[in-house]
């Protein structure tokens, strides 16, 4: 049977890592919220984390660009995620690109304990380069879902986050004020 989120069966597979990646505006957070809400409906014990540095829409909530939201625990380091309550069955993590390099090992430890770990994050930065721990997480995940936005230039599927702001810093929080999703043909380096 094909392994996908739809036919994922906890009792058969035990713990696992799912990665949702893609450009900005590609629906990563919406997809993360959908999976976490289904877990909550199934009455599983769910804990949700984001990096403390992600204060873009809210300090505590994870908020999508469509302003759907879910409560989360902001943490400074990935190792803090391991302090979760022992009855946790599902862990959600957003903005994974901002976490330290230990995040893959932290997720591995959780999955080994039988926890379903769902991680969302940018796979590439504004230079089109692999971003933080996300590529390493993709390598060790059971399931990787790469989602696309719509290119603002031509309407094709977009996998790049083009920075319209002038900053060259790797980390620059923002949304439509500073970034636009673009396809391979319309993306170029700043
Ligand atoms: N160019 C675009 N392409 C796709 N979705 C867009 C675009 N601009 C705005 N959106 C909105 O962004 C939403 C996705 O938001 P979100 O899940 O927060 O994305 P991500 O977490 O990948 O940045 C879409 O449902 C759509 O309403
Ligand atoms: C490409 C890129 C993005 N960022 C920042 C901008 C946003 O605050 C987040 C991404 O949020 P989303 O949920 O995926 O829309 O990351 C950055 O700091 N550096 C970059 O290169
Ligand atoms: Zn395009």
Automatic annotation (TrEMBL):
Substrate binds at residues 171-174, 179. It catalyses: thymidine + ATP = dTMP + ADP + H(+). InterPro entries: P-loop_NTPase, Thymidine_kinase, Thymidine_kinase_CS. It is found in: Cytoplasm. The keyword Nucleotide-binding applies. GO terms for cellular component: cytosol. ATP binds at residues 22-29, 94-97. It comes from the Bacteria. Signal peptide: none annotated. GO terms for molecular function: ATP binding; thymidine kinase activity; zinc ion binding. Keywords: ATP-binding, Cytoplasm, DNA synthesis, Kinase, Metal-binding, Nucleotide-binding, Transferase, Zinc. GO terms for biological process: DNA biosynthetic process; thymidine metabolic process. The active site is at 95 (proton acceptor). It holds the Pfam family TK. Its EC number is 2.7.1.21. The keyword ATP-binding applies. Gene3D superfamilies: 3.30.60.20, P-loop containing nucleotide triphosphate hydrolases. Homotetramer. Belongs to the thymidine kinase family. This is Thymidine kinase. It comes from Pedobacter psychroterrae.
């Amino acid at each position: 049977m094909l392994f996908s989120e739809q036919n994922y069966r906890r009792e058969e597979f035990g713990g696992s890592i799912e990665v949702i990646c893609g450009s900005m505006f590609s629906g990563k957070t919406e997809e993360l919220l959908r999976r976490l809400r289904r877990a909550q409906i199934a009455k599983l014990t769910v804990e949700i984390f984001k990096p403390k540095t992600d204060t873009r829409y809210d300090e505590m909530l994870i908020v999508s660009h469509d302003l759907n939201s879910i409560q989360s625990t902001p943490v400074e380091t990935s190792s803090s995620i391991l302090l979760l309550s022992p009855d946790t069955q599902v862990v959600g993590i957003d903005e994974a690109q901002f976490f330290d390099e230990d995040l893959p090992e932290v997720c591995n430890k959780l999955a080994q304990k039988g926890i379903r770990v769902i991680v969302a994050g940018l796979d590439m930065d504004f230079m089109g380069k692999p971003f933080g721990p996300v590529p390493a997480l993709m390598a060790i995940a059971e399931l990787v879902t790469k989602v696309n936005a719509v290119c603002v230039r031509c309407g094709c599927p977009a996998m790049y986050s083009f920075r319209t702001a002038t900053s060259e810093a790797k980390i620059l929080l923002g949304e439509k004020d500073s970034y636009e999703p673009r396809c391979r043909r319309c993306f170029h380096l700043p």
